[in-house]
Amino acid sequence: MIIDKKRFNMKDFLIKSEEISAEFGQYPGSIPVEELIRNGIVILDKWSGPTSHDVTATVKKILGLKRTGHSGTLDPKVTGILTITLENACKVIPALQNLDKEYVGVLHLHKDVSDAELKKAVKKFTGTITQRPPVKSAVARIERKRTVYSFELLEKKERDVLFRVSCQAGTYIRLICHKLGEELGVGAHMKELRRTKVGRFDESMLIRIQDLVDAYEFWRQNGDESIRNFILPVEAAIEHLGKVIIKDSAVAAVVNGSPLYTGGISRIQKGIAVNDLIAILSLKGELVALAKAAMASEDMLNKKGLAAKTDKVIMKQGIYPKMK
After folding, report:
1. Mind listing the pLDDT tens digit for each residue in 213-251?
2. The whole model's pTM is what?
3. 36 near 28, Cβ under 8 Å?
4. Are 81 and 45 in contact (CB under 8 A)?
5. CATH topology for 101-198?
6. 272: which of 54, 63, 86, 218 is 20 to 30 A away, CA to CA?
C-alpha cells in the first residue's frame, strides 16, 4: 500500500515511481507504546515558575527516558506551548526551531495613554522590526531583523492592555513591550505572556503534566494505551517540511547515512528547492531521515543523480533490510 493518503494530500506530490510497500516497517499511528514514548513529541502546557529546561527534565524523569529536549525556550514566568521531544525524537529539533509563534499577553503601561495613541504606536511594531537580544538570551547580542505578522489589541483596562502577537521565531515579545512604551513616551513592560501557537501546534493540542503522569502510570500498570492521546509520533514534527517518499529498497541505505539518489524515490512533494531541509519518508509514512535537498522537486522527478544529502537519521537500523 502507498503512503497513508489521510495524512498527505497526494495532489501535492509528483509521482516518479508507483511502488507497493512490503511487509517491512509499520504505520506511525500503530507503533507500540514503548516505541512511541522513545520516539514521540509532547505538546506540553508549561506552567509559570520553572525554566523550560526544568520542565523538560521533569518529563524525562516521569517517562524514565535517557534524553529529552525542547525546540523553543520560554521564560520561567511564561506559560503555554512547549514542544518537548522524547529521546530519539530529539534529532528532529532542527525541524521545529524556526516555526512561527503566536502569543497572548498583557502589557502594562506606566502612564495613561489614549486608545488612539496606542493603536498608532502598535502599527510601528508590525512588519519587519529590528531587535537586539536581551542580556540573558542564549544567542549573540547582535541586531537582527524579525517579522511581526500581526499585533492585535484585544482589550484595554486602565493601564493593562491585552494583546495577541503572531511573529517569526526568535522574536522577543518582552522587548516589543518595552520598545512600545518608549515609542509612547510613557514606559511599559510585559506583565503576562502565554504562547498559544507554534507552527501548526495550537492550544487545542496541549496536555497538562499531571495528565501525562496519569496516562503513563495507567499504561505501565495495566497496559492502558490512552497515553497515545498525549504523545504524538515523531512524524508530527515534519508536517511543514517538503517531503520525499522513497522505495522500501532505498530505506536501509539512507538509514545507514547514505545520501538519497533519484533512483530510490517514489514520490516528491511539489515546491522543494535546493538546500531546503526536507523529510525523507517510507511508503508507510515513517520518518526515515531529515536531509538537505540537492535538487528541486522537478529535477528529482526528471533527472538522475544526487537528490538529497542525509542530515539526521531518525529510523533505527534493521527495520528495513538491504535490497537490490
Report:
1. 999 999 999 999 999 999 999 999 999 999 999 999 999
2. 0.91
3. no
4. yes
5. Alpha-Beta Plaits (3.30.70)
6. 86
